[in-house]
Amino acid sequence: MTESSNGYPQIEAPQTQEPELTPQELRQQRLMVVGAVAFLLLLVGLLIGGIFLAIDNPETTTVFRDVMIILLALEFAVIGLALVILLIQLARLINLLQNEIQPILESTNETANTLRGTATFLSENMVEPVVKLNEYLAVVRRMLDLLNIGR
Description:
mainly alpha; two-stranded antiparallel sheet
């Protein structure tokens, strides 16, 4: 810390440094880059091969198209089943919230209200009389000090 021109201490910002990668992290990073490049090359190769296949043999292309349509239909069926399962799970969660969590929250709210009432009761019946007694004692002590009786 250094002192600035107005006399207040000036806090210097901490210097941040790039964390150095360990050899294992570097190896993982290189592996990910190589994997991504290989995937892109494979994708481009499949695209080029598909174009040549479509141009060279139209019958094979129609069979491939039909197989892909069937696979997409199966995929939509699986997605539909997953959505139905998701809706069932959501209904179970809502049921859990309404039938189990709601009573716990109501009980907690009731306990908080009871505690609030207890605190109010103690404040009115215990704290206020003690405070008033201290006020009266302070008045008596001050009167005795003014009359020089206590000293």
